[in-house]
Amino acid sequence: MEKFKTLKDHVYDYIALLIREGRLLPDQHINENAICQELNISRTPVREALIQLAAEDVLENRARKGFAIKALSEKDVLELYAVIGVLDGFAARLACDALTEKDYKDMEFYIDSMDLAIKADNYEMYHKQQNFFHQMYIDKCGNSILMDTLSKSKNKLLKTTYFEDHNDEIKEIFLATNEEHRHILELFKAKDKDSLFKYLAETHWRGTYASYDLLI
Question: Residue 147: which domain range?
Answer without folding.
Answer: 74-215
